[in-house]
Design a protein that fits this description.
This protein is of the alpha/beta class. It is built from 13 helices and nine strands. Helix 4 links the parallel strand 2 and strand 3.
């Protein structure tokens, strides 16, 4: 797609440049084909695409998926996409804001080149939906992907998500892959729902409180933050057995270490001490 296309689109839709350009469109159909080929999407899958824009991803998804449902906010883009895919029986164009969209009860996957201004909101919606996707492939800012996936350091977000999802960067883009070229680095993030969660569903609220307590306490280290929960000897043993520094801060620990600490908390701490994280 040429720059003329996007200038015409801006004029036709009446979208201000700073809003329109919150989304950076991929230029190469062959690159999209390569990306989709690396996904788990197949003939039996229903795929939701968020912000299809110029339809370059939509067209490739439709070649391999049973059904593609593309959700686009802009009315003029919806008209263009509807005309573009007239006759394509497995493509449905839906006008609306994905943030307000009702997640289906059926199994589904997601592939999307996200507008940067809704990245965090979209990822939270997908992960905390009543029925999360089996797989989600999201093109987004590298910095945001690092926060979500806990790379190179875990974040509160990544530690909260990982009992139920694995998150991994699959592809690093060149800025020249997009029109307009983004000012930031962009990657493809794969979010996969675990078949068996690492935390029991009935413990989800307790785990969330535990992690938020650890990240949210304004203390110099986790040992001090959890002083009312673990004895010094317990914390010393936890740090030794799980190979982290006894004075570690929240982001010094990898997810497996967080999980091990929580598992000890779940079975080895009294109910009275557990109440201290509320």
């Amino acid at each position: 797609m040429s720059r003329k296309f996007y200038r015409r689109l801006e004029k036709d839709s009446g979208i201000r440049k700073r809003i329109l350009y919150a989304q950076n469109y991929l230029k190469s159909a062959s690159l999209v084909k390569t990306l989709v080929a690396q996904s788990s999407i197949g003939r039996e899958d229903t795929v939701y695409e968020i912000g299809p824009g110029n339809g370059i991803i939509t067209a490739e998804l439709a070649k391999i998926a049973r059904k593609v449902i593309a959700i686009e906010l802009d009315e003029n883009l919806v008209k263009r996409l509807t005309n573009q895919f007239t006759g394509s029986t497995n493509i449905e164009i839906v006008q609306g804001n994905f943030i307000d969209f009702q997640i289906p009860d059926e199994k589904y996957k997601v592939f999307a080149n996200l507008p940067f201004n809704i990245t965090a909101e979209t990822v939270r919606k997908l992960l905390y939906a009543r029925n999360p996707p089996i797989d989600a492939y999201l093109i987004l800012q590298k910095e945001a992907a690092g926060k979500f996936s806990g790379s190179p350091r875990e974040s509160e977000f990544s530690v909260l998500a990982k009992p139920w999802f694995s998150l991994q960067e699959l592809w690093s883009f060149k800025k020249s892959d997009f029109v307009p070229a983004p000012a930031v680095d962009v990657v493809l993030l794969h979010i996969r729902r675990r078949e068996i969660s690492l935390i029991k569903n009935e413990e989800a609220k307790q785990y969330t409180r535990f992690v938020k307590f650890g990240f949210g306490a304004w203390k110099k280290d986790l040992k001090t933050a959890f002083k009312s929960v673990f004895t010094y000897e317990q914390w010393k043993r936890l740090s030794r057995d799980n190979r982290f520094n006894i004075d570690a801060k929240p982001t010094d620990l990898i997810f497996d270490q967080w999980l091990a600490i929580y598992q000890f908390f779940s079975v080895g701490v009294s109910a009275a001490k557990k109440s201290n994280i509320a």
